[in-house]
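Quick one, T. Sequence first:
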Amino acid sequence: MGFLRDDIEFSSPFTVSQKPYKAKLDQNESPYDLPEELKDLILEEVKRMEWNRYPQPVIYNEVKEIFAQEIGVSPKNIALTFGGDQAILSAFWVGGGKGRKCSIYEPTYPMFRHYALATSTEADIKVLGENFTIDPSDFKGGYHIIFLVSPNNPTGNLIDKEIVREALETGALVFVDEAYFPFSGITVWEDLKDYPNLMVGRSLSKSLLAGMRMGYVLSSEEVIRAVEHMNFVPYNLTSFQLAIFKNFGKIGEYIKKISEEIVRERERVFKVLDELGFKPFRSFANFIMFKVKDHKTAYQAFVDEGVRVRDVSSLPGLYNHLRVTIGRREENEIFIEVLRKLAPIQAPR
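C-alpha coordinates:
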Protein backbone atom coordinates (compact mmCIF):
# COMPACT_ATOMS: atom_id res chain seq x y z
CA MET A 1 0.00 0.00 0.00
CA GLY A 2 1.31 3.43 -0.91
CA PHE A 3 0.87 5.01 2.50
CA LEU A 4 3.42 2.65 4.11
CA ARG A 5 7.18 2.84 3.63
CA ASP A 6 8.34 0.62 0.80
CA ASP A 7 11.93 0.26 2.12
CA ILE A 8 10.81 -1.91 5.06
CA GLU A 9 9.28 -5.37 5.02
CA PHE A 10 6.85 -5.19 7.93
CA SER A 11 6.54 -8.49 9.78
CA SER A 12 5.15 -9.74 13.07
CA PRO A 13 6.29 -7.92 16.22
CA PHE A 14 8.88 -9.39 18.59
CA THR A 15 7.52 -12.40 20.44
CA VAL A 16 8.59 -14.74 23.22
CA SER A 17 7.20 -18.06 24.35
CA GLN A 18 3.92 -17.84 26.25
CA LYS A 19 3.87 -21.46 27.37
CA PRO A 20 3.64 -22.31 31.09
CA TYR A 21 7.01 -22.54 32.77
CA LYS A 22 8.81 -23.66 35.90
CA ALA A 23 11.84 -21.50 35.16
CA LYS A 24 11.71 -18.30 33.07
CA LEU A 25 15.27 -17.92 31.80
CA ASP A 26 14.81 -16.37 28.36
CA GLN A 27 14.71 -12.55 28.59
CA ASN A 28 17.71 -11.46 30.69
CA GLU A 29 15.50 -10.04 33.43
CA SER A 30 16.16 -10.09 37.14
CA PRO A 31 14.50 -13.10 38.78
CA TYR A 32 13.91 -10.95 41.87
CA ASP A 33 11.30 -8.23 42.26
CA LEU A 34 11.57 -5.09 44.36
CA PRO A 35 10.51 -5.75 48.00
CA GLU A 36 7.04 -4.54 49.01
CA GLU A 37 8.39 -1.93 51.42
CA LEU A 38 10.46 -0.29 48.68
CA LYS A 39 7.52 -0.39 46.27
CA ASP A 40 5.33 1.24 48.92
CA LEU A 41 7.89 3.99 49.44
CA ILE A 42 7.91 4.84 45.73
CA LEU A 43 4.13 4.56 45.44
CA GLU A 44 3.74 7.12 48.22
CA GLU A 45 5.85 9.51 46.15
CA VAL A 46 3.69 8.82 43.08
CA LYS A 47 0.51 9.44 45.07
CA ARG A 48 1.75 12.92 45.97
CA MET A 49 2.19 13.80 42.29
CA GLU A 50 -0.47 15.46 40.16
CA TRP A 51 -1.41 12.76 37.67
CA ASN A 52 -3.33 15.28 35.55
CA ARG A 53 -0.18 17.36 34.90
CA TYR A 54 2.77 16.70 32.61
CA PRO A 55 6.18 16.22 34.26
CA GLN A 56 7.85 19.65 34.33
CA PRO A 57 11.44 20.49 33.27
CA VAL A 58 12.27 21.68 36.78
CA ILE A 59 11.26 18.27 38.18
CA TYR A 60 13.30 16.43 35.54
CA ASN A 61 16.39 18.50 36.34
CA GLU A 62 15.94 17.99 40.09
CA VAL A 63 15.55 14.22 39.66
CA LYS A 64 18.47 14.03 37.25
CA GLU A 65 20.71 15.77 39.76
CA ILE A 66 19.70 13.35 42.52
CA PHE A 67 20.19 10.28 40.29
CA ALA A 68 23.52 11.56 38.95
CA GLN A 69 24.80 11.98 42.49
CA GLU A 70 23.76 8.41 43.34
CA ILE A 71 25.74 6.91 40.44
CA GLY A 72 28.68 9.31 40.83
CA VAL A 73 28.55 11.45 37.68
CA SER A 74 27.93 15.13 36.93
CA PRO A 75 24.32 16.04 36.02
CA LYS A 76 25.76 17.78 32.94
CA ASN A 77 26.93 14.41 31.64
CA ILE A 78 23.70 12.43 31.94
CA ALA A 79 20.31 12.20 30.23
CA LEU A 80 17.46 10.03 31.54
CA THR A 81 15.74 7.85 28.94
CA PHE A 82 12.70 5.65 28.47
CA GLY A 83 14.64 2.41 28.79
CA GLY A 84 17.97 1.43 27.30
CA ASP A 85 16.31 1.25 23.88
CA GLN A 86 15.72 5.01 23.87
CA ALA A 87 19.38 5.50 24.77
CA ILE A 88 20.30 3.55 21.60
CA LEU A 89 17.71 5.39 19.50
CA SER A 90 19.09 8.69 20.81
CA ALA A 91 22.46 7.88 19.22
CA PHE A 92 20.76 7.42 15.85
CA TRP A 93 18.76 10.63 16.32
CA VAL A 94 21.79 12.79 17.08
CA GLY A 95 24.39 11.08 14.87
CA GLY A 96 22.55 9.10 12.21
CA GLY A 97 19.93 9.70 9.55
CA LYS A 98 19.77 9.81 5.78
CA GLY A 99 23.17 10.14 4.14
CA ARG A 100 25.00 9.07 7.30
CA LYS A 101 26.68 5.74 8.03
CA CYS A 102 27.06 3.53 11.11
CA SER A 103 29.04 0.41 11.97
CA ILE A 104 27.31 -2.51 13.74
CA TYR A 105 28.96 -5.75 14.84
CA GLU A 106 26.82 -8.89 14.96
CA PRO A 107 25.66 -11.09 16.57
CA THR A 108 24.32 -8.50 18.99
CA TYR A 109 21.15 -6.86 20.27
CA PRO A 110 18.76 -6.65 17.26
CA MET A 111 17.61 -3.09 18.03
CA PHE A 112 20.79 -1.61 16.50
CA ARG A 113 19.90 -2.99 13.07
CA HIS A 114 16.23 -2.10 13.64
CA TYR A 115 16.87 1.55 14.54
CA ALA A 116 19.30 1.97 11.64
CA LEU A 117 16.46 0.94 9.35
CA ALA A 118 13.92 3.14 11.14
CA THR A 119 16.13 6.25 10.90
CA SER A 120 17.34 5.62 7.33
CA THR A 121 20.93 5.36 8.56
CA GLU A 122 23.18 3.30 6.30
CA ALA A 123 24.39 0.33 8.34
CA ASP A 124 27.67 -1.46 7.66
CA ILE A 125 27.08 -4.78 9.44
CA LYS A 126 30.08 -6.99 10.14
CA VAL A 127 29.40 -10.57 11.28
CA LEU A 128 31.99 -11.69 13.85
CA GLY A 129 30.41 -15.00 14.82
CA GLU A 130 30.69 -16.70 18.19
CA ASN A 131 34.20 -15.42 19.05
CA PHE A 132 33.20 -11.78 18.51
CA THR A 133 36.68 -10.30 18.03
CA ILE A 134 36.75 -6.72 16.69
CA ASP A 135 39.55 -5.58 14.38
CA PRO A 136 40.15 -1.83 14.94
CA SER A 137 41.24 -1.43 11.31
CA ASP A 138 37.51 -1.76 10.54
CA PHE A 139 36.93 1.66 12.08
CA LYS A 140 38.41 3.41 9.06
CA GLY A 141 35.21 3.26 7.07
CA GLY A 142 34.14 6.87 7.28
CA TYR A 143 31.50 6.14 9.89
CA HIS A 144 29.40 8.75 11.65
CA ILE A 145 28.53 6.30 14.47
CA ILE A 146 30.34 3.19 15.70
CA PHE A 147 28.25 0.91 17.92
CA LEU A 148 29.96 -1.33 20.49
CA VAL A 149 28.33 -3.49 23.18
CA SER A 150 30.12 -4.43 26.41
CA PRO A 151 29.23 -7.01 27.65
CA ASN A 152 27.82 -8.06 24.30
CA ASN A 153 24.48 -9.85 24.03
CA PRO A 154 24.34 -12.83 23.51
CA THR A 155 28.08 -13.66 23.51
CA GLY A 156 28.67 -12.13 26.97
CA ASN A 157 32.18 -10.81 26.26
CA LEU A 158 33.67 -7.40 27.09
CA ILE A 159 35.13 -4.96 24.56
CA ASP A 160 38.71 -3.93 25.38
CA LYS A 161 38.98 -0.26 26.36
CA GLU A 162 41.83 0.27 23.91
CA ILE A 163 39.54 -0.88 21.09
CA VAL A 164 37.03 1.74 22.22
CA ARG A 165 39.79 4.35 22.35
CA GLU A 166 40.81 3.56 18.77
CA ALA A 167 37.19 3.98 17.69
CA LEU A 168 37.02 7.35 19.46
CA GLU A 169 40.19 8.53 17.73
CA THR A 170 38.37 8.34 14.38
CA GLY A 171 36.15 11.25 15.44
CA ALA A 172 32.94 9.26 14.97
CA LEU A 173 30.27 9.22 17.65
CA VAL A 174 31.07 6.03 19.56
CA PHE A 175 28.11 4.48 21.39
CA VAL A 176 29.04 1.83 23.97
CA ASP A 177 26.06 -0.15 25.23
CA GLU A 178 26.66 -1.08 28.88
CA ALA A 179 23.20 -2.46 29.63
CA TYR A 180 24.78 -5.27 31.69
CA PHE A 181 27.14 -3.03 33.67
CA PRO A 182 25.60 -4.10 37.05
CA PHE A 183 26.97 -7.60 36.45
CA SER A 184 30.33 -6.76 34.88
CA GLY A 185 31.24 -3.78 37.07
CA ILE A 186 33.46 -2.66 34.17
CA THR A 187 32.89 0.58 32.27
CA VAL A 188 34.71 2.63 29.65
CA TRP A 189 33.29 5.85 31.09
CA GLU A 190 35.85 6.58 33.79
CA ASP A 191 38.90 6.16 31.54
CA LEU A 192 37.52 7.66 28.32
CA LYS A 193 34.99 10.30 29.41
CA ASP A 194 37.25 13.16 28.24
CA TYR A 195 36.48 12.19 24.65
CA PRO A 196 33.53 14.42 23.66
CA ASN A 197 32.33 11.82 21.12
CA LEU A 198 31.90 9.01 23.67
CA MET A 199 28.30 8.05 24.40
CA VAL A 200 27.56 5.31 26.96
CA GLY A 201 24.07 3.83 27.20
CA ARG A 202 22.82 1.88 30.20
CA SER A 203 19.60 0.18 31.26
CA LEU A 204 18.00 -0.46 34.63
CA SER A 205 15.97 -3.31 33.12
CA LYS A 206 18.51 -6.12 33.46
CA SER A 207 19.28 -5.71 37.15
CA LEU A 208 15.74 -5.21 38.48
CA LEU A 209 13.38 -2.73 36.76
CA ALA A 210 12.49 -4.30 33.39
CA GLY A 211 8.81 -3.47 33.85
CA MET A 212 9.55 0.21 34.43
CA ARG A 213 11.51 0.78 31.16
CA MET A 214 14.26 3.06 32.47
CA GLY A 215 17.73 3.87 31.16
CA TYR A 216 20.23 6.67 30.82
CA VAL A 217 22.99 8.11 28.65
CA LEU A 218 26.44 9.29 29.77
CA SER A 219 28.27 11.67 27.46
CA SER A 220 29.78 15.13 26.97
CA GLU A 221 27.66 18.22 27.64
CA GLU A 222 27.35 18.82 23.90
CA VAL A 223 25.97 15.34 23.22
CA ILE A 224 23.69 15.41 26.27
CA ARG A 225 22.13 18.71 25.09
CA ALA A 226 21.50 17.12 21.69
CA VAL A 227 20.02 13.96 23.23
CA GLU A 228 17.69 15.87 25.54
CA HIS A 229 16.60 18.07 22.64
CA MET A 230 15.75 15.10 20.40
CA ASN A 231 14.03 13.19 23.23
CA PHE A 232 12.02 16.32 24.06
CA VAL A 233 12.65 15.90 27.76
CA PRO A 234 10.98 15.76 30.22
CA TYR A 235 8.03 14.52 28.17
CA ASN A 236 9.81 11.30 27.19
CA LEU A 237 9.35 10.07 30.78
CA THR A 238 6.37 9.41 33.03
CA SER A 239 5.97 10.79 36.53
CA PHE A 240 6.21 7.18 37.77
CA GLN A 241 9.64 6.75 36.16
CA LEU A 242 10.83 10.07 37.60
CA ALA A 243 9.72 8.96 41.07
CA ILE A 244 11.85 5.80 40.78
CA PHE A 245 14.88 7.73 39.49
CA LYS A 246 14.47 10.13 42.41
CA ASN A 247 14.43 7.29 44.94
CA PHE A 248 17.15 5.22 43.31
CA GLY A 249 19.39 5.76 46.33
CA LYS A 250 16.92 3.77 48.43
CA ILE A 251 16.89 0.79 46.07
CA GLY A 252 20.48 0.90 44.77
CA GLU A 253 21.89 -1.26 47.59
CA TYR A 254 19.21 -3.89 46.98
CA ILE A 255 20.07 -3.95 43.27
CA LYS A 256 23.77 -4.34 44.12
CA LYS A 257 23.02 -7.27 46.43
CA ILE A 258 20.87 -9.02 43.82
CA SER A 259 23.45 -8.45 41.08
CA GLU A 260 26.16 -10.03 43.23
CA GLU A 261 23.93 -13.06 43.82
CA ILE A 262 23.32 -13.40 40.06
CA VAL A 263 27.08 -13.28 39.37
CA ARG A 264 27.70 -16.07 41.90
CA GLU A 265 25.01 -18.21 40.29
CA ARG A 266 26.35 -17.41 36.82
CA GLU A 267 29.74 -18.84 37.74
CA ARG A 268 28.13 -21.95 39.22
CA VAL A 269 25.98 -22.59 36.13
CA PHE A 270 28.96 -21.92 33.84
CA LYS A 271 30.96 -24.61 35.63
CA VAL A 272 28.18 -27.18 35.17
CA LEU A 273 27.77 -26.32 31.47
CA ASP A 274 31.51 -26.66 31.00
CA GLU A 275 31.77 -29.97 32.87
CA LEU A 276 28.90 -31.43 30.83
CA GLY A 277 30.60 -30.48 27.53
CA PHE A 278 28.27 -27.71 26.31
CA LYS A 279 31.15 -25.28 25.58
CA PRO A 280 29.72 -22.25 27.42
CA PHE A 281 31.05 -18.80 26.54
CA ARG A 282 32.62 -16.77 29.34
CA SER A 283 30.06 -14.12 30.24
CA PHE A 284 30.24 -10.85 32.15
CA ALA A 285 26.46 -10.37 32.00
CA ASN A 286 23.48 -12.14 33.58
CA PHE A 287 23.28 -14.85 30.92
CA ILE A 288 25.43 -17.57 29.35
CA MET A 289 25.49 -18.66 25.72
CA PHE A 290 26.30 -22.31 25.02
CA LYS A 291 26.44 -24.80 22.15
CA VAL A 292 24.28 -27.84 21.42
CA LYS A 293 24.34 -30.41 18.63
CA ASP A 294 20.83 -29.62 17.38
CA HIS A 295 19.25 -26.39 18.57
CA LYS A 296 15.68 -27.31 17.60
CA THR A 297 15.69 -30.61 19.50
CA ALA A 298 17.50 -29.15 22.52
CA TYR A 299 15.27 -26.07 22.69
CA GLN A 300 12.11 -28.20 22.51
CA ALA A 301 13.42 -30.43 25.30
CA PHE A 302 13.75 -27.38 27.57
CA VAL A 303 10.26 -26.19 26.61
CA ASP A 304 8.76 -29.63 27.32
CA GLU A 305 10.33 -29.55 30.80
CA GLY A 306 8.97 -26.06 31.53
CA VAL A 307 12.28 -24.23 31.15
CA ARG A 308 12.19 -21.13 28.96
CA VAL A 309 15.62 -20.43 27.42
CA ARG A 310 16.44 -18.38 24.33
CA ASP A 311 17.24 -19.98 20.98
CA VAL A 312 19.77 -17.57 19.43
CA SER A 313 20.74 -19.85 16.54
CA SER A 314 19.04 -17.55 14.00
CA LEU A 315 21.53 -14.77 14.79
CA PRO A 316 24.49 -14.42 12.39
CA GLY A 317 27.24 -16.94 13.17
CA LEU A 318 25.41 -18.63 16.05
CA TYR A 319 23.83 -21.73 14.53
CA ASN A 320 23.12 -24.35 17.26
CA HIS A 321 23.59 -21.91 20.13
CA LEU A 322 21.20 -21.32 23.04
CA ARG A 323 21.29 -18.66 25.76
CA VAL A 324 20.17 -19.05 29.36
CA THR A 325 19.43 -16.15 31.69
CA ILE A 326 20.63 -16.69 35.25
CA GLY A 327 17.66 -17.02 37.58
CA ARG A 328 17.07 -17.85 41.21
CA ARG A 329 19.06 -20.81 42.51
CA GLU A 330 15.99 -23.07 42.39
CA GLU A 331 15.29 -22.08 38.76
CA ASN A 332 18.90 -22.72 37.82
CA GLU A 333 18.66 -26.17 39.42
CA ILE A 334 15.69 -27.01 37.20
CA PHE A 335 17.71 -25.88 34.17
CA ILE A 336 20.70 -27.98 35.27
CA GLU A 337 18.49 -31.03 35.79
CA VAL A 338 17.29 -30.82 32.15
CA LEU A 339 20.86 -30.12 31.02
CA ARG A 340 22.12 -33.34 32.61
CA LYS A 341 19.44 -35.31 30.74
CA LEU A 342 20.46 -33.69 27.46
CA ALA A 343 24.23 -33.99 27.87
CA PRO A 344 24.66 -37.53 26.45
CA ILE A 345 22.90 -36.60 23.19
CA GLN A 346 23.24 -32.80 22.85
CA ALA A 347 26.62 -31.78 24.33
CA PRO A 348 29.05 -31.07 21.43
CA ARG A 349 32.02 -31.53 23.81
